[in-house]
Amino acid sequence: MARRATTVLDSRTARLELKPRKQPYYVQVAPRVTLGYVRHDPPPGTWIMREKTEDGYRREKIGTADDVGFADGKSVLAYIQARERAANGDASDPGSAEPLSVKRAVERYLAALEARKGSAAATDARQRAEKHIDPTLGKKRVTRLTKRELEEWLGGMVREDPDDPDAHRRSRDSANRVLTILKAALNHAFADDANRISTDSAWRRVKAFKGVATEREDHFDATQVRTLIAKAVSFDRPFANLIEAAYLTGARLGELAALDVRDFDAANAVLMIRKGKTGARPVTLTGESVAFFTRIAKGRLPGAALLPRGDGDRWGKSEQHRPFKRAAKAASLPSSASFYTLRHSHISRAIEAGMPLSLVAENCGTSLTMIERNYAKVLAATRRKTIERTAPRLRRVK
Questions:
Q1: Using CA atoms, how far apart are residues 160 and 79, in angstroms rounded to an integer?
Q2: Nearest Cα residue to 253 out of 337, 342, 126, 171
Q3: In terms of C-beta density within 10 A (0-12 exposed, 13-18 middle, 19 or more buried), how is residue 221 classed?
Q4: What does DSSP say about strands 264-265 and 76-77: parallel, antiparallel, or unpaired?
Q5: Taking burial as the number of CB atoms within 10 A of a residue's CB, which of 19, 117, 292, 396 is the most buried?
Q6: Are 241 and 330 in contact (CB under 8 A)?
């Protein structure tokens, strides 16, 4: 068993009195980290950093001890320099000013992603990282990450809502997307030899939740939405307005709740989403939508909520669940439907009408990948009709 030293490593004289051997003499310098010294004959000896991991131990050479020469702070280190380097976790990169953090690794990955695919491709990933990765893992050193730590972080994004039975599945689905971003960033760092990351096992062995990514099943046609609105009007006119706005724009509940009267531009037929899930965006409106928003905005102050509750306050998270269920039941709609179904319905009807997918994605604040994944059945059903209507022709077929 390796001998654990306490004070014998801090001076050149004491180290040279140790018995030469291949196994290092160790001293604790940080939680899970020890500094080792290998006594050679003839000297100088070698400094080793040993870190305890879930797989056992990770060892790296830090540099040469100043047993017979002067320390230069780079390749030849005095005890205090070796101790600091091992404790700070940057033993693998003596020339680095600071060890690679998760936040820095994500920033580098997003910059590379944006260079390859454009800013739009990196927008969603950046916002998810800022919300879910940076606050918890951002300051962590990539080389110090553990499987347990990452699994606890992943589980921390899962939520329960007694008023929303699907919240558990949706939150796990969302957590998987964030995990994909984190793994991509860490793999990008691992692939760069300059980072000298010795293993990717900590994040490679973290598994995503299974069976949580489902295609959007429920969606309404215009007749069903009109019935839903009529039922909502019977007990809550402001909520009926919220339903109508959601179907006409395809916007998310939080985006609608954050709208001010000033965000509606009737002259240009635009609704400005300033606090969108994927960033700010203009939503181009139809004539019907302009007429609707003109009616509810008439005579109201610019800073007022465009779609307030009955008491004038803004809608809060999950406050739509109970009134929606009440209206949906009265309208004889599926019990599995939720307020979010209105967004699915908007996108589904737009696809069926032949709206270019890029325009659907832009107006609704999502990506082509998400549309192709979540609306596969709708796309398949409209493909034949779209091709029949738009493909080149040579002759009229009787």
A1: 51
A2: 342
A3: exposed
A4: unpaired
A5: 292
A6: no
Q: How far apart are CA 351 and CA 27, in angstroms?
A: 65
Residues 6+ apart with CB under 8 A from 283: 249, 250, 251, 270, 271, 272, 273, 363
CATH 1.10.1060 fits 12-88, yes or no: no
Q: What is the pLDDT of residue 60?
A: 85
Whole-number percent of the chain with pLDDT over 70? 91
Rounded Cα gap, residues 111 and 99, in angstroms:
19
Note whether 39 and 19 are within 8 A (CB): yes
Residues 47-104: tens digit of each pLDDT: 998 888 766 787 888 899 999 888 888 889 999 888 888 877 655 444 444 678 999 9
The pLDDT of residue 261 is 97
Dmax over CA atoms of the chain, in Å, equals 102
**Which amino acid is located at 274 in the chain?**
R
Q: Does the pLDDT at position 163 exceed 70?
A: no
What CATH code is assigned to 222-390? 1.10.443.10
Neighbours of 198 (CB within 10 A): 13
Spell out the CATH class of 102-204: mainly alpha
Domains in the chain: boundaries: 12-88, 102-204, 222-390
Q: Tokens at residue 284, please?
A: 């181009």
Q: CA 387 to CA 389: how far, in whole Å?
A: 5
Encode 359-383: b = buried (16+ Cβ within 10 Å), e = exposed.
ebbbbbbbbeeebeebbeebbeebe
